[in-house]
Here is the input.
Amino acid sequence: MKTRRRNYGKDRISILPDCLLLQILSNLEVNQAVELSILSTRWKNLWKHISVLSLHYRNFESVETFATFVSQVFSSRNVNTSLQALTFECQRYCDPDLLERILKYLFSHNIQRLDMTVTCSLKHFPLCTNFSYHTLTSLKLTSCQEYYRPSFLPVFPNSLQFPALTYLSLGYFTFRCTTDDGYADPFSVFQSLNTLIIHYCQLYNEKTSAENNLFISSVSLVHLTIALQADYKCYKLKLSTPNLCSFDFVGHPFQNLCGHNNISNTNFSNIKHVKIELPILKVTCSPTILFNWLVELALMESLTISSKTLETLNLIPESWKIGFSYLHNLKLLKIVTIERFSLPDGKEDFLLQNAPSAKKVILPGPTLKSILKDLINEEQILKKRFRYRHC
Here is the structure.
């Protein structure tokens, strides 16, 4: 009992080596790590050596307070400590000058992984094309829009130098068409890219009469995810991705899949895993085009679709009597069920007629109540941003 009393209250954490303490602090947000500096002299300057930072506006009373804290953090960090990763989130208006200073600091300190979600009135996101970031391997950028109108999406630069980049995720950006025939080609410069995620991005073409095409060219690309806005007729996709293995698509399939120069089979022969999700509340795509996608992706081994997708395919007259001679390699079919869109009785079996040994899995999806709740919350957030912008 005496031994227990002597050890009670002993600071066991502070006797840990610095490497373990820094790992603990790296799992906290920066403001929490700074607050711990008052515990003892051992902790006073420890946060200045953290190489993984997490900065979120939600922990501060105002944008001004947050901006001041961010500036102090970067000016107080140990100059010899490299910066491995940063998560930065400010869904209120972010000063473009502050944003540009942060980016310059990050790339001067050998940043490897960057996840940034910001709201700013920028025509061009401050990633200068003459910068070369040889250490960056993962980049996730999300541009939160105050008005949620396509014309306010910032432009993503066409010629960035990220030779080590393997993961790229972009949300709410504009790709500028640079050729007379309406092509945007922002990704071919990334020679090591393995995963590409494009969420609700658009194309801008000064020649409004020209056809817009997003050209995705990458020999190294393995995983591709594209989400298009449900109420916005977007660009056509042209792929030159011979090693693409998985393809996830959310939105309206309004065009036949094709590779560059309309060559399709050479681009899709290695795709083994496919997921196709149609918007729940509004569908404007042609069921025939959706059916053609299954033909183009005939060599897949796993397919994930929703009951809404099956319902759309069912709009083809006598579709389930068609002799479907594809999908011989299918091993797994996942069907995500959604309220109101009931699973057509046995109609999904036509996808398995050439792969009878394939496993079929029925998964519960989101309820309409939860979907409507998310839409209402999103609308409320947009109204708050609009009021803040005009107050």
